[in-house]
Amino acid sequence: ADNKLGIEKRVSWLEEIKPKIEEVYSGKICLKGEWNTSAFNNSYSCFAPTIGTPENEEEKNKLAITIYNWAEDAKNRNLEFIIGEIWSGPGWKGRERTKKEYVMALEISKGKVNGVFVLDSISPRPFPAPAGFEDFKCMVREFYNQN
Question: 3-state class of 55 per DSSP?
């Protein structure tokens, strides 16, 4: 929505669209996007940000702090915190992310999130799937069944 509307219009649009969704849908409404949006005035059921795959120890520590802060804020706002997407970051050009890096992102968020959205594919084509696994859904299921 930011690319199409801009940040300010997106915030008002998120507030306007929610009642229209509730007219036809009675389940939880999860908002994927930036945490600091005013639409997170507890009107949405959950927050689903995109998290990156850490490439090194510094990125791993930074992600752990971010996940902790988001989890605490979600708890304080009475929102569910769900991983909306695991992104392989801007470094996808010239370097494939590995299954290990995706699992590391799941490990960091384990116990702090209420779930993970699983899309049909890990990345839109023509971008390559990460090295080491074919099916993201199976990888997430395997991670949570083993841990």
Answer: coil
